[in-house]
């Protein structure tokens, strides 16, 4: 590793992306749905209980049917061994033979034809309660038999299994699958409905203050989401207008400042040579540079780069080196250009030109006269400017991209805006600037851009 | 050489006129788009220096209307607009060059000369820089008045550099000039030729310098004292 350290100086997703506190909409809907289902089940149970308690006849019928089912399940079981309903007294159960009908006074219902058996139930009041008597047809081992049952009971207790059975049969069994189904359906429905919201969120995240032309897509989304999306878009439009005003201001300021500066400079040139004239000329040049840099920075801040244009970093690098070389050589300095690999990238040619220029100016300001400044395009969509001046100290490193920061405040050359401009222009490209401190001294500033899309 | 200056700031205009007059240009001045249209009807100009923000319109519109009329007069935009897209917009509209304020008279004069196809301080067929004089018709080179021996190729090379004295000439441009009729080009041919030329003129006592701009090309620089 040649470089002692590498500092990524740009973090576009630096803001905390942690979700806000509070449950998700999906969870809210699911909990509410579950609670509602529970309430509905409870209500259903109440209705069942109320209905049956007001109809003791049908309760008695159901009770005997339930007991008969128990007998049916227990093969060859003596019906007498059945426990009967809870709290039942004088429980008796036995099979009867319809043909013989011997000694079966009670089993046959009054008025029924002999040999003709049928299910029946009778409920009669006895002292301290009720007696329930009845016959049920039971299928055992494929053979039909007739079960006679009788018991006495009191209050609701004997009916509890019946009511429980009813609840299972008519409330739980249909309601549980329905609730589950509803829940599953809701998962999908809510997910689906929230999809445009998530898309809008992603779009808002992707919004770039440098590219205010972006808008959230409106269709197709539920009306509620669309209302929000439109409101956000209206806000973006207002932002856009504000940016346009700012850009307009920058252009006006440029004109208002540069014209008097031109007059000053040309007027000074006409004065007879004197040390005072030289000082004033130097001051004017400094002021000119300051104004240019401030305007460049203001413009870079408001810049909307659409890096869709393919550019060749090597072509731009050659242009800037050719343009700056005479001035650099006149100051007894050396400027070199190198290229490596494919140097094409997506970008704004003029902005990249200024990135190069500011980096070279920075190198000229910091490296001593006898060292070369090496400008490199590539490999890939990146450029770099390397000087062999003093290395950047740990102490200075965090400050070099700060606006108006200069290592030595007494230096009158430059405003400390050059690197800030480069950083801003790189960001406007969706790129980044890094500074490396090679072990053999100096500094290497590297700017990376978006690569060309495949096939271009 | 007659120039038309369109600039709405009177003080700046008078400073530019005076400066260019001293460089040997005759400069007419008007303040508005209308004034410029009028002046162009009456006189023929070799070059127009145009400010963009004018009281009665945008200079860019004037350029476009001139170019629509197939007027090929060179136009140099002289403006305070130094934005990222301004230069491209200006050149796209049909301007030939673009200079952002503030500027200095020597630079403005150099740009004007370049547009008027009179590069360097050429007089007739003679190209001069420092004590080096190249006669482009005779194909001879003198250093300090003394003729030197140079191959035709070296003279071609020196001519290229002299025509763009003070500026970097890219390698492909030099190679194109050297080998236009010759198919045989080796990668080091240009380098070798430059090296021989440099030795030759330095040995003859030339005060100009041929510098290598590594990775880009070469540039001929006049001695600092003689450079305006």
From TrEMBL, chain B:
Pfam families listed in its UniProt record = Response_reg (PF00072), Trans_reg_C (PF00486)
What domain of life does the native source organism fall in?
Bacteria
Q: Which InterPro entries match?
A: CheY-like_superfamily, OmpR/PhoB-type_DNA-bd, Sig_transdc_resp-reg_C-effctor, Sig_transdc_resp-reg_receiver, WalR-like, WH-like_DNA-bd_sf
Question: Transcription among the record's keywords?
Answer: yes
Q: Which key words are in the record?
A: DNA-binding, Phosphoprotein, Transcription, Transcription regulation, Two-component regulatory system
Name the GO terms of the biological process aspect.
regulation of DNA-templated transcription
One Gene Ontology term, aspect cellular component: protein-DNA complex
The record, for SUPFAM superfamilies, names: C-terminal effector domain of the bipartite response regulators (SSF46894), CheY-like (SSF52172)
**Binding region for DNA:** 124-222
Q: Name one GO molecular function term.
A: transcription cis-regulatory region binding
* Residue ranges of domain Response regulatory in the record: 2-116
Q: Which CDD domains match?
A: REC_OmpR_PmrA-like, trans_reg_C
Which PANTHER family did the record assign?
REGULATOR OF RPOS (PTHR48111), TRANSCRIPTIONAL REGULATORY PROTEIN CUTR (PTHR48111:SF36)
Entry protein name: DNA-binding response OmpR family regulator
């Amino acid at each position: 590793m040649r470089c002692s350290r590498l500092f990524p100086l740009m973090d576009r997703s630096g803001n905390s992306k942690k979700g806000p506190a509070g449950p998700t909409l999906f969870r809210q809907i699911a909990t509410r749905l579950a609670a509602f289902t529970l309430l509905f089940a409870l209500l259903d149970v109440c209705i069942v209980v109320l209905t049956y308690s007001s109809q003791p006849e049908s309760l008695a019928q159901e009770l005997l049917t339930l007991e008969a089912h128990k007998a049916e399940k227990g093969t060859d079981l003596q019906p007498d061994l059945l426990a009967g309903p809870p709290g039942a007294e004088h429980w008796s159960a036995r099979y009867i033979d319809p043909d013989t009908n011997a000694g079966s006074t009670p089993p046959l219902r009054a008025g029924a034809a002999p040999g003709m058996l049928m299910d029946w139930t009778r409920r009669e009041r006895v002292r301290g309660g009720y007696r329930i008597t009845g016959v049920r047809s039971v299928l055992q081992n494929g053979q039909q038999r007739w079960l006679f049952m009788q018991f006495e009971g009191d209050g609701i207790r004997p009916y509890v299994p019946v009511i429980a059975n009813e609840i299972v049969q008519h409330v739980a069994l249909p309601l549980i699958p329905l609730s589950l189904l509803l829940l599953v359906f809701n998962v999908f429905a809510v997910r689906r409905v929230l999809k445009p919201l998530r898309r809008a969120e992603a779009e808002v995240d992707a919004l770039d203050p440098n590219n205010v032309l972006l808008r959230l897509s409106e269709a197709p989304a539920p009306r509620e989401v669309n209302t929000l999306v439109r409101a956000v878009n209206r806000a973006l439009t207002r932002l856009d207008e504000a940016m346009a005003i700012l850009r307009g201001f920058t252009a006006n300021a440029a004109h208002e400042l540069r014209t008097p500066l031109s007059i000053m400079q040309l007027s000074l040139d006409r004065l007879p040579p004197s040390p005072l004239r030289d000082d004033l000329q130097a001051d004017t040049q400094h002021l000119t540079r300051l104004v240019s840099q401030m305007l460049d920075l203001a413009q870079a801040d408001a810049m909307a780069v659409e890096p869709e244009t393919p550019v060749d970093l090597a072509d731009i690098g050659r242009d800037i080196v050719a343009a700056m070389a005479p001035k650099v050589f006149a100051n007894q300095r050396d400027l070199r250009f190198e290229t490596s690999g494919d140097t094409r990238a997506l970008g704004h040619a003029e902005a990249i030109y200024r990135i190069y220029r500011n980096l070279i100016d920075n190198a000229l300001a910091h490296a001593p006269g006898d060292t070369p400044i090496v400008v490199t395009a590539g490999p890939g969509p990146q450029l770099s400017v390397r000087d062999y001046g003093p290395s950047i100290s740990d102490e200075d490193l965090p400050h070099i991209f700060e606006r108006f920061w200069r290592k030595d405040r007494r230096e009158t050359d430059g405003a400390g805006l050059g690197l800030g401009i480069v950083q801003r222009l790189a960001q406007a490209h969706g790129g980044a600037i890094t500074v490396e401190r090679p072990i053999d001294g100096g500094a290497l500033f590297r700017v990376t851009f978006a690569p060309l899309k495949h096939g271009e | 050489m007659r120039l038309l200056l369109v600039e709405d700031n009177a003080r700046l205009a008078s400073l530019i006129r005076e400066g260019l007059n001293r460089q040997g240009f005759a400069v007419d001045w008007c303040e508005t788009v209308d004034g410029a249209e009028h002046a162009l009807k009456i006189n023929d100009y070799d070059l127009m220096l145009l400010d963009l923000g004018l009281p009665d319109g945008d200079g860019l519109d004037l350029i476009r209307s001139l170019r629509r009329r197939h007027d090929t007069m060179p136009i140099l935009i002289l403006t305070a607009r130094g934005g990222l897209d301004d230069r491209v917009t200006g050149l796209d509209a049909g301007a030939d060059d673009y200079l952002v304020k503030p500027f200095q008279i020597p630079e403005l004069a150099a740009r004007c000369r370049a547009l008027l196809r009179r590069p360097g301080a050429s007089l007739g067929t003679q190209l001069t820089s420092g004590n080096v004089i190249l006669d482009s018709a005779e194909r001879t080179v003198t250093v300090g008045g003394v003729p030197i021996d140079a191959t035709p190729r070296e003279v071609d090379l020196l001519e290229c550099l002299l025509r763009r004295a003070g500026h970097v000439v890219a390698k492909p441009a030099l190679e194109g000039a050297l080998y236009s009729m010759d198919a045989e080009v080796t990668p080091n041919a240009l380098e070798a030729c430059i090296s021989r030329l440099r030795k030759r003129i330095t040995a003859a006592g030339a005060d100009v310098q041929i510098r290598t701009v590594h990775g880009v090309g070469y540039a001929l620089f006049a001695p600092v004292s003689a450079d305006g």
